[in-house]
Amino acid sequence: MNKPMVLVIHGIGTHKPGETKKAIADGLNQAAKNFGLSDFDVNDKVEFFQFNYSDFLDEIRLKDAKKAGELVDHLSLLKGRGLGEKAASELVEFFSEADEDKFFNTHWLDVIYYGLMFWGENIRVDLAKKINDLMIEREQGNRKLHIVAHSLGTAVLHDTLAKLFRKDTDITSKVPHLDVDRFKIDSIWTVANVSRLVNLLNDIADPNESIVSCDSDGCTSEFYNIKNEFDPFTWFKEYKRPINQSGRHITVKTVREIDTHDLKEYMEAPIVAEAFLSNVLNISVTDEQYAQGTTKHASTSINYSYKQLKATFDNLHQQNEPMDKFKAILAIVEAADSFQEKITDMMDQA
Amino acid sequence: MKKYLLVALALLVVSTSHADENDIKLRCEYDKNYFDNYPTQHNSLQNLAKALGPTLCKNVLQITDEEISSFENALTDYAVFANADIKNTFPEEIFTGVSNIAQLWEEQLRNYKATFDYLNPILFGMNDLGPGVGKDRFNFRVNLTPHSQNYLEMKIDREQKKSCKTSNKDIDCQNAIDSLNNAIKPAFSLLNSELLENNGKLLGQLQSDWKSFIKEARYQTPLDVWFTTVIQSDKFNGADLTGPPTTQWFLLRPSLVYEHVKELEKGNRDQVSVALEWVGMNWWKEGIGFSFTSIYNDRAETSAVGHGFTLHIKNKYSIGYVHRKDKNGGVFLNLDLLEVFGEKKKVYKKYKDYF
Fold this sequence. Notes:
The structure holds two protein chains of two kinds. By secondary structure, chain A is α/β, with parallel strands linked by helices. Chain A has helices at residues 19-35, 42-45, 54-75, 85-96, 106-116, 119-141, 152-164, 195-202, 263-268, 270-281, 287-298, 306-313, 325-349, and strands spanning 5-9, 47-51, 145-150, 165-166, 178-179, 185-191, 220-228, 247-252. In chain A, β6 (185-191), α8 and β7 (220-228) form a beta-alpha-beta unit. Chain A starts with a strand and ends with a helix. In chain B, α1 (2-19) crosses α2 (21-27) and α3 (43-58) crosses α8. At the A-B interface, α3, α6, α7, β8 and α10 of A face α1, β1, β2, α7 and α8 of B.
């Protein structure tokens, strides 16, 4: 049997080619080292493929900025012709910042562009084609197809699969579909799953009810949903759909970096790496190796206990989840800011 | 439903055959090294799968009696042998429930005249439940679609591990599963490839439509895009993957225009003004659209505000007309159109010289 294929889908922000698979590979390789697995390199065990949608979003965002800039180029001509000096200056300043990160945090702009605009559908069609191509390769080469998605990528993946897979397909239709009775992804790994949050924006399919599951009539054979208890991106509209024995929810409870949302950090966590090594690579980590890996990983965590961290951050979780789409986005932005502020203070004091 | 699927498959295969007969022939044959990727200890079963695969792919329509006979023989041989092989590999007294699903699968295969469920393969799998669950941390599963009750999961215990080795020439349960799957899958692989390739063509067409839209359609601001998405939310947020909008919408879109007011004295007739498209539509494939537009330019010679419409032509050019309450009319072009006639800097210089 040929190497398994692992399709990786990045989260929010701009991502260079190869960056996401490197984050995953580096995290897993470090974890394997902590387990005591010698000469291990995940790149020798699997073939990575990357789906990149940040280039497209950047292109659209920059085009919008350019068009706004063209307006600015001519605004000064109107001074004294209905547009005051101050108003013209303010408009020029507003538009000229449109292509800079500070205009509106690029990260959040990605969520808006994907969730509220039809550009999201273009991304989904591209991803569906990529998955379909890999499934052809899988069929011919008897390979396994696993998908790892991070952050906004979890929503992109969920929405794409919800539209691509169907029970009882009608293949006379000119609409592309795959029948879940005949086709399944081998495993799906959602890291910092925000699919329910983004679903507030686009309302494509409720992740709690959709075909994207490892139930017998779901589109994947195995499903692993991973979160860090101290990753503020997972605090609202958390994905809690029950997962049967063909997968599980995995909760990371350690903090080593300020950015608890970081993909490499997630993959390096022993509880995540063990599950990946075992279920994708068929490499079983013994209980002793796992204990060793956990100890080594914990030694580089910040000097606070799980209980202390939990007590500090529990109040940042809102008891009543905001149902309004914009309030939910604002709530998560505020929570992320508060988290970063507090964790920075704690790390400085530690 | 059955008839519907039958017609569907007929259309699929016939249309592809007409498109390229050699192509369809190649797709219903295994690649030269195909079976190198499917190592198995169940050689007899794999040989039957190998015989069934092309037959299933080519003769799925069962058009002639001869083909039906050929298909039925291959299918029955495969079904009977597969059922027996599964039961040998995972004996009922140790893997309780597997035998029942294997039997149901054989019946599903034999029942090919009634339903297309016979095209669904039986799937065996295994996964690790993770550390901390004790010694029996591996999970064994069998899934036979389409009925969810034909799904079975169990933790693999010591006795089952032992059975995997004894019934499969000293290989463990993961390898036993792989070996069995590799014997079963080739029967369905060619047809699955056909279905995937057909699906890929449909997806490729959607990609192509989106590329055309991005390249050819009239530019939309983020607000325009959002507005279009809201109006066509059933399309974009619906259950199916879809192509780009056929109609573009515009909302509160500001722009600068070059306006000519014929009634004014020479020297005051041509000026740059602010235009606002209140709402508009554009059919980008046809290259025609319109917007309700107002123009504002605070000057002594005529009313500051005029109301009218803009006509969008070929997704690039916009011309319009507004009427003012002092009866003066204005014809205008958008600045994008002006840029067609020269480099941006030259146009800019032209404005500066003008003013």
